[in-house]
Amino acid sequence: MALIIEGGLNLPMPKMVPIRQKFSTAEVKDIPAEIQKLFHQEARMKTIRKGSRIAVTGGSRGIQAIDKVILAVIRELKSLGAEPFVVPAMGSHGGATAEGQKKVLAGYGITEETMGVPVRSSMEVEEIGKLGNGVPVYLDKEALHSDGIVVINRVKPHTAFKADYESGLIKMLAIGLGKHKGATAFHSCGMDMFGELLPQLGKVVLAKAPVLFGLAILENAYDHPARFEIVWSQDLIAREKVLLVEAKSLMPQIIPDNLDLLIVHELGKEISGSGMDPNITGRSASPFFQKPDALKVQRIVVLNLTAATKGNACGIGVADLTTKKVVDAMDRDYTYINAITSGVLATARIPIHMPTDQEAIQLALKTCARVEHPRSRIIWIKNTLSLEKILASETMLPEIKANPQLEVLGEPKAMQFDGKGNLLLL
Length: 426
Prior knowledge:
20% strand, 426 residues, 14 helices, alpha/beta, five-stranded mixed β-sheet, six-stranded mixed β-sheet, Rossmann fold
């Protein structure tokens, strides 16, 4: 039965204006050279014995040039006489299978051929201790029985909770290397306890596992590495807290606020662990995400899944509307396993989905309160990582022109849709 909507879906829509958002452009241009410099500056690198089997972590997040970063670390370890290998550190991602996790790494260009070292993917873990509340702590067996672990991850705000410790090196050690069993055990504590338990769990791992150091990646607003820092195991817990503050200061945002509609062109796990970053959209499926300066928006519409997410639609649950093509492209198993492991079931909920982009956008506008159409305040973004060039409704032009962080790139144009109702990019 066709959906009958009172008054139809034919609201007048504002024209859209291309604009550029300006953020800090600090960036590491030559990744291998920078990592080589950091290794050479650290006298403690000489304590790594020749022939040492060193586990280097590879995660599932879409970190810019992560293959170059890991390869550079491997080369430096080899130059010290070590024998590095790569271990996936991604909790339950990749379908919670060894082969699936290896495929995730391959998708980022991290293979035995490209790295020149083995990629040892296994879901086998060993219990290495317990948290104060009795929850067991698990660690990847390959990493645990190596001569040393080098953990690589970006430090950045988490998408489901706010605390002194969020996403970073400790989380990679605690949940990433804990594999499916460890991630499930930790998530059972409840996300409201993560901020308190992450450093506690980190201490257990650091006491029981041969962690050498972490390579922290701090990204600029354009998703490129702003700088790297080597953090030795004994400094890791104290230092990560400081690094998170710096990471938050580098985050991009959607500068125009108080929106009626945010159109997200694509959602994907390689873009954010939450599909679309709540630090950008202002919304999270987790009730423990409290961000006082969060974006204010009435409706969010998601139009597509990325190809790289391979059907994992986690994050779709925070959208108000989506499209039939998104729901058809969902891999329910991947999406549900991810949601169940995290304990945030709402992330996998399927919102109202319309046959076309045009109908989804129209219905979103129709259900906005206190809007005089076509003067709705709309922002279009490609995804929550691509925030330099966005589209804004012409209603917002006066405030855009008055803001030095915003630059108008062209003339207002009407939104266009193809014969199937798909939104055509301006």
